[in-house]
Automatic annotation (TrEMBL):
Name recorded for this polypeptide: Oxidoreductase
Matching Gene3D superfamilies: NADP-dependent oxidoreductase domain
InterPro entries membership: AKR, AKR_Detox_Biosynth, NAD(P)_OxRdtase_dom_sf, NADP_OxRdtase_dom
One of the record's GO cellular component terms: cytosol
GO MF term list: oxidoreductase activity
Species of the source: Litorivicinus lipolyticus
Pfam families found in the cross-reference section: Aldo_ket_red (PF00248)
PANTHER family, alphabetized: NADH-SPECIFIC METHYLGLYOXAL REDUCTASE-RELATED, OXIDOREDUCTASE YDHF
Domain NADP-dependent oxidoreductase: 15-291
Length: 300
């Protein structure tokens, strides 16, 4: 597995990242099952794990942390990402009247500390602001993120779902660099290649992360777009002796922006095959065949 540098202050991250959003959706959330997933990742060199405070209605980080207690050796074998600022309506927070974002220093710092305690780790490798906050005071948020890094609780910070102007605003109020923007990229969500999102990451010299690289499973559905995409991908998959899922991920890996796909299957057999994507090479014309199927039209 290729290991990539997001910033000098960070350990190397695995090019493929495993995401924990669906952890609590699995019918089996036992420590054994969580450990089995992590072990299947590690066997392939997938060492970077993507969490968020809100995943599983605030349950996923704790599920993972409970499993780590049973296997503390896995703690240092992985790099741990988490996120903050989304305030879900939840039975855990009965006083909350509206779903909102909170990039206040109090929330950002408390959320990071809660993630550390739920995960049972000493420092987050990366903390992301999960969604751009239309009520953000960039001076306060930037200072809070810097202070988390200076205190050693977080090794680096980044953002998620940010537009280029959101990135500029927050970065202008920090002395530490934002090291990634985690955005939706998959063959059914390709706007980022032309709307400035990927261009901004390339301009800044940061590597984007791609959430839902298989469109959250929609790539395997019955929509006309999914059928068309699969028809284009199937010969490439057959030629490389891998599944369509590996071709979709390889299509992201092929892009010069250095995208890190964040995969989310709960299925142990699929987890065991995630690294198949690294065995598929996609040339320029194959990339555009998939892009054309994604947009439904020939490039002008
Ligand atoms: N920053 C953000 O705002 C944001 C938003 C969303 C997600 N994320 C991150 O991205 C990670 C991945 O998201 P995701 O889970 O949506 O990614 P994904 O890998 O695109 O989708 C996973 C879903 O696709 C299904 N699937 C995978 N392979 C399949 C196949 N061959 N055939 C049929 N179904 C298949 C899985 O079902 P099975 O489980 O049954 O295999 C699962 O439901 C999350 O865990 C989270 O860490 C971040």
């Amino acid at each position: 597995m290729e290991m990539v540098s997001l910033h000098d202050s960070l350990p190397l991250f695995s090019r493929l990242v495993y995401g924990m959003w669906r952890l609590a959706d699995d019918s089996d959330t036992s420590d054994g099952q969580v450990i089995a997933k992590v072990e299947k990742c590690l066997e392939q060199g997938i060492t970077t794990l993507d969490h968020a405070n809100i995943y599983g209605d605030y349950a996923c980080e704790a599920l993972f942390g409970r499993a780590l207690k049973a296997r503390p050796d896995l703690k240092d074998a992985c790099q741990h990402i988490s996120k903050c600022d989304v305030m879900l309506l939840s039975d855990h927070y009965p006083d909350r009247r509206v779903k909102h974002y909170d990039t206040s220093a109090v929330h950002v710092i408390e959320s990071a500390e809660t993630s550390l305690s739920r995960l049972g780790i000493d420092a987050l490798d990366l903390l992301l602001i999960h969604r751009p906050d239309p009520f953000m005071d960039p001076t306060e948020t930037g200072r809070a993120l810097d202070s988390l890094i200076d205190s050693g609780k977080v090794k680096a910070c980044g953002v998620s779902n940010f537009k280029p102007w959101d990135l500029d605003l927050l970065q202008a109020h920090m002395h530490h660099p934002l090291v990634t923007n985690q955005i939706e990229i998959n063959p059914m969500a390709v706007d980022c290649f032309v709307n400035g999102d990927i261009a901004k990451a390339q301009t800044m010299g940061i590597k984007p992360m791609a959430w839902s690289p298989l469109a959250g499973g929609a790539l395997f559905g019955d929509s006309a777009r999914a059928l068309e995409l699969r028809a284009v991908m199937q010969p490439i998959a057959d030629n490389a002796n891998v599944g369509i899922d590996a071709v979709a991920v390889a299509w992201l890996l092929a892009h010069p922006a250095g995208i890190l796909p964040v995969l989310g299957t709960n299925n142990l057999e699929r987890i065991a095959r995630l690294s198949d994507a690294t065995r598929v090479s996609i040339d320029r014309q194959q990339w555009f065949e998939i892009y054309q199927a994604a947009t439904g039209q020939e490039v002008p």
